[in-house]
Every structure is written in structure tokens, then in C-alpha cells.
Design goal:
With about 70 residues, the chain is of the alpha+beta class. It has one domain. Helices cover about 25% and strands about 20% of the residues. It has a two-stranded antiparallel sheet with strand order 1-2. Strand 1 and strand 2 (about 50-55) form a beta hairpin. The chain is flat, with a radius of gyration of 16 Å. The termini are far apart. The mean pLDDT is about 90.
Length: about 70
């Protein structure tokens, strides 16, 4: 993924595809959903090597019922 695409890929309505067929909401929606559970999305890309997308969820501890 080129740097300019990586910079904008999480913005609403950004797409590198035909705008009449794609609305560019996939990563934006994913990021919003993850935010509701306090998770984070990390995207890195190196041209010629591929793109990595990692999702980090907070560590949750079980609450004891008393």
C-alpha cells in the first residue's frame, strides 16, 4: 500500500476503487466498532512486502460476583 493510501485508508469515503461501486467505509466502520470495545487498529505497510493489520484488544479481568 503506498504511503498516501496508508495515510488516508481509515478516513470515511476514501477508496482507491471505482466510487460508483465502493463507498470507502470498511476500515472506518471497523475502527468505529473497535473503538466501542476500547480496541485499537494498527495498519503498517511496506511496498513490495505487504500490509499488516493488527487489532489490539484491552486485557480484561473477570469480575468476581459477591
Amino acid at each position: 500500500m503506498p504511503e498516501d493510501v496508508l495515510e488516508h485508508c481509515q478516513k470515511p469515503f476514501f477508496s482507491t476503487k471505482d466510487p460508483s461501486l465502493h463507498h470507502g467505509l470498511g476500515l472506518t466502520t471497523t475502527k468505529t466498532i473497535l473503538k466501542t470495545v476500547q480496541a485499537k487498529l494498527d495498519i503498517t505497510s511496506k511496498r513490495g512486502h505487504g500490509t499488516n493489520i493488527k487489532v489490539y484488544f484491552p486485557h480484561l479481568t473477570a469480575k468476581s460476583s459477591a
